[in-house]
Amino acid sequence: MKQDTTVVHSGRDPQRFDGVVNVPAYRASTVTFPTVADLKRKHAIRFETTYYGRYGTPTTAALEEAVAALEGATHCAATSSGMGAVAGALLTFLKQGDHLLMVDTVYWPTRKFCDVFLKNFGVETTYYDPLIGAGIAALIRPNTKIVYCESPGSHTFEVQDIPAIANAAHAKGALVLLDNTWASPLFHEPFSKGVDVSIQAATKYIVGHSDAMLGTISVRQRDQFLAIKDTLGSFGYATGSEEAFLGLRGLRTLSARLERHQRSALAVATWLQSQPEVERVLYPALPDDPGHALWKRDFTGASGLFGVLLKAGTEEQVAHMLDHMTLFAMGYSWGGYESLIIPTRGAVERTATNWTHTGPSLRLHVGLEDPADLIADLRAGLDRLGEKAGDQ
Known about the structure:
Number of helices: 13
Mean pLDDT: 95
Strand order of the largest sheet: 1-7-6-5-4-2-3
Number of strands: 11
Distance between the termini: 60 Å
Strand content: 5-15%
Helix content: 25-40%
Shape: globular
Radius of gyration: 22 Å
């Protein structure tokens, strides 16, 4: 089936539920068994059946089935948040004495997890240039177990050459993990690019309505899936059935929403490029973006999230701009129907590369509003930036 059909039909079995279209939200902790033999049998396959609420319910299983089908995986494990998916995947495949190669443009909480928690567990992390490509081979050690990618990069939106990185990693026995949240499986097929483990903050585009926390980890090997489920269960990273239900609900409209996010984001980003206050727009879908060629080769679309570099402005001036936005709200997360904007200058942390832009920077998520209204809101905000600059 084509992806637009898969996103509607995967993980559904109406006849199992008396013809009901949507899988119900199973509110369950305890699951009972009629005999000791049945209890023992279910324990042996506890990660692949309904055994105990922490391991999942039929609602969770439906979401996992649907996401696996969409990603081109054989198995998917749902968890309580995107960060839970990141931590759960890393903790599954790393142990004391191992080495991790982490992209320098990674999501900040992932960096903190590496620098604090993995370090305390005896795992060493080396950060690498996102544009390194096949050159990653020179950084891989005998104890390097994982090469972790995030493409485009957090806040600065560099596109990685995932196939080249994967070829180099596999040649030396390392797994490739990818945070695929920005594009979702609809705009980037991770396993066809050589990725071993695909991670998503399903809180974002899969849920799509800013009302649930959810993460997913997809793989193509059953033993990896079982190991991940064991880790998630051991750390208590349980997925609530209500959240899984909301993930399934959002998944059904993912294709239609992403198409709108992309169309509107491209209109807003193109407009921003022409504004005198803007130095550069960081969006791989733009033809003059440094990552455009790789994006065009490996992706089939672009989401609604991108960055903006302003030419000048103090923190006070940027605050004056953002404090009075009408449609763009300030808030973390993204992927919902609403447009968001946050300042990011202080959030760009680099240790393996240099980030040379010294002016203000912003991250925008373009929602489902009319792009003309969003442009008007941004123009008024840029005018306020100029007004406050004139007061200095």
